[in-house]
TrEMBL record:
<dbReference type="InterPro" id="IPR002645">
    <property type="entry name" value="STAS_dom"/>
</dbReference>
<dbReference type="InterPro" id="IPR036513">
    <property type="entry name" value="STAS_dom_sf"/>
</dbReference>
<protein>
    <submittedName>
        <fullName>STAS domain-containing protein</fullName>
    </submittedName>
</protein>
<feature type="domain" description="STAS">
    <location>
        <begin position="15"/>
        <end position="117"/>
    </location>
</feature>
<dbReference type="InterPro" id="IPR051932">
    <property type="entry name" value="Bact_StressResp_Reg"/>
</dbReference>
<feature type="region of interest" description="Disordered">
    <location>
        <begin position="116"/>
        <end position="135"/>
    </location>
</feature>
<dbReference type="Pfam" id="PF01740">
    <property type="entry name" value="STAS"/>
</dbReference>
Length: 135
């Protein structure tokens, strides 16, 4: 690991790592982010990774290639990756550039991505309803 931080937040929810990419991700930060994420997958035994790209308004070939490589590395480390929240403009750009995100699973939004990784939102009891208490 480089000892530097990409500045991309990386949260753990159980055995899933959750992160999001921003427009400001330059090539160097993308490489540092890849190092950080693969280190965390290995160190924490993550079985899944959700990368939310809903704030990414544009994508270039380098970031697209980085996503593909990151997905391959995560699979080799035993984790599934879901890329969620792709905007139509990003999808159009990828097609126009002839870039296929081979091996990258996608979801319309983060909630669907988490569900694809085995997470399900449990219904909240109505306000004021008694909660189950252990006996």
């Amino acid at each position: 690991m480089t000892g530097r931080s990409s500045g991309v937040p990386l949260l753990r929810l159980g055995d899933v790592l959750v992160t999001g990419l921003l427009d400001e991700l330059d090539d160097k930060a993308a490489l540092v982010f890849t190092d950080e994420l693969t280190e965390r997958i290995s160190a924490e035994g993550a079985r899944g990774v959700l990368i939310d790209i809903s704030r990414l308004e544009i994508i270039d070939s380098f970031v697209a290639r980085t996503l593909m490589e990151l997905t391959t590395m995560a699979r080799l480390l035993g984790a599934r990756v879901i890329v969620a929240g792709m905007r139509p403009a990003v999808a159009i750009t990828l097609v126009e550039l002839g870039i296929e995100l081979t091996g990258v699973r996608t979801a319309l939004n983060a909630e669907q991505g988490m569900a694809a990784l085995g997470w399900h939102q449990s219904p909240q009891p109505p306000e004021g309803a008694p909660r189950d208490t252990p006996r």
